[in-house]
Input
Amino acid sequence: MADWARAQSPGAVEEILDRENKRMTDSLASKVTRLKSDSDFTSMTGLLTGSVKRFSTMARSGRDNRKLLCGMAMGLIVAFFILSYFLSRART
Output
């Protein structure tokens, strides 16, 4: 038999219902948090998949695009090192 059916006073019934309500609210909040993180992961996976497909298409195309791709890669590497240099200087 449920706890609320065994309660003797109206105050006890309200307390039991409040506890059950809080438990269910916490359970729902954890499920919502889990769904949000799954949604974020799915959207990030889709973004990365699209980027990899575009990169692969660009790499497979003609010689001009290969030069552009090589230039972009070198530029990104240089930008990464410059950014890491400035960040390390900012910490000290």
